[in-house]
Design a protein that fits this description.
The chain is of the alpha+beta class. The chain has four domains: 172 residues, no CATH class; 294 residues, no CATH class; 42 residues; 72 residues, no CATH class. Helix content is 49%, strand content 13%. The protein is built from 23 helices and 20 strands. Strands 12-7-2-18-17 form a five-stranded antiparallel beta sheet, with no helix packed on it. Strands 9-3-16-19-20 form a five-stranded antiparallel beta sheet. It is elongated.
Length: 661
Amino acid sequence: MSSPIKAAVSSYLHVATLLRLLAVLVFVLAPHMARLPVWETVAVLAVIAWRAWAAQRHFTMPSKWIRGALALAAFAAVYISYGRINGQHAGVALLVVMAALKLTEMDQRRDVMVMVFLMYFVCSTHFLFSQELWTLVYLLLAAVAVTTVLIESNHAGEPLPLKVTLGRGGRLVAQALPLMLLMFILFPRVPGPLWGLPSDAGASRSGLSDRMAPGDIAALILSDELAFRVDFDGDAPPQNQLYWRGPVFWDFDGREWSEGGPVYTAPYPVQLQGAPVRYEVTLEPNRTTWLFALDAIDQSQLPPDSLVTVDGRLLANKSIRERIAYRAVSHPRYLAAPELSDQHRRMATRLPGNRNPQAVALAQRWRAEGMNDAALMQTALQMFRDQQFFYTLNPPILEGGNPVDEFLFTTKKGFCEHYSSAFTTLMRAAGIPARVVTGYQGGARNVIGGYYTVRQSDAHAWSEVWLRDKGWVRVDPTGAVAPNRVELNLQSALGADEALPFAFRRSSSQLFTQLEARWDWVNAEWNRWVLAYGPELQKEFLGRFGIEGWRDLMLALIVALSAATGLFGLIALRRAMPVRIEDDALRLWRQATARLAGDGLIQRPHEGPQVFVARVIEQRPELAATLQPLLASYLAMRYVGDTSAIAKLQQQSRGFKPRKV
């Protein structure tokens, strides 16, 4: 990559300063390294290492042909890795590798400035992937480090001590923070995320899918990513009632369930009963339209820009690309669809032909024995309780064409999707309308904030059956096998030889639990007041100060910026002014010698008052009569501490007027 011939090329930066710049570049790029392809991480680190070596050995920079070839190769490699060069991931990958390649031509002041500003820009790209509190802290440190490099790169000669430049960089960033806060509060907020890129819209961040097959949710359980937080008004319902409704599956091909189902815009036929439960959900971006709520939601108090489908799904009118908060009201007691239409009955009893014949035969035998719907449902649940069925995160892979039969009669080991799929299949085979519902079950209460956190590891699948005079009834067959999963949490339902990974376990240490809860509370407040500070919250907050409408907002912004700019100007002006002398004797002495300076008789920095007066009298003997008493009064006041000499010194200082020659 470099010329093998050494050359005495003058570099703009001192070697020590260049090494500091490279260290800061690694610090700035570090969070991206985990997201980049392995080849790019290795290539970037190799270029940085080469640049450090080349600076110490004084190698020339590669020719423009070599640099051009490297740039084209990086461009092609990014395109091959991502299938594009634009978008969130591909665009950042291209930016990172090109920033590294900039080092191969960085030997002039212009190149160094471009590199410094590139590092500032790369810092901002981290917000594309994370806007958590730790990201802000990390990037503030990165901003201090880059500002330090900016200061060092504008210092000629030997590098300043690192402690000095770090202090200056930290002060500059600290001085910018009040202005940043002012702009954050007053600058008009725009709806929608600033950090979303259309070309990356295809990847869903929610672990739930619009389809369900054996093993899907079991794999999702291993993700501890936050799904949403819930803050209840008053007491929360019991853990076994916390079913957060998501996608509802009607269509079954013998192995995989999919949504299908009736028309979305039809109203949800439900009769609400009992006391309502009111709560606020703070939902993480999932790039779907799914909003999660407890059954059954009050359709007269829906969140803005949302609707409820005929099967009880709560949907947003557009894809959720940023963290949102919405309020909902639900009734744990309800009667859903007391009357079932013929169309919905056909859809809820439909099974693919010639699939899972053993399960179908078993359900039909139960029906032939004269069982009614409720009894048949209880028989299926009792089978899960009495026979050797096991709840496991690692069920055997069902590879045959009849996975329900294989699960019910062979393996008998599965996760929630196995049990809900098998139970729903049995119900349909017996002629009972049934469907599968996925979402989340439970949640962990934060002991500091009092709210509940629901994570991807709380993902769950259950069944709903339609019974005459009862409508759609929730049935969780997993609870028949592992009741602790519904009553407590996932970890308590697993066997002793099958625990969750360490990162997902809840420690029994009270101190650890308190620290974990406090950190989550800090993040929740950060999300609530900073990341969720959009147009509505800004309007509500500024309205408390009488700032309403765009006109008031722009006026407040202009006034605040003018005041901040004026304040900074006054501080700078104050620093530029001469330091006020607090010592009276020294002040009066300089007042007198200032008059001498007008005649060209200036006291030199290394001269004491006696040496200075002796030199002046040697040049201007006629001043001896006035200078010697002035000097005596000054020395008596300054060094002897004779306070009575101050009046004499004041008089002599005011009356001292040397005559020009």
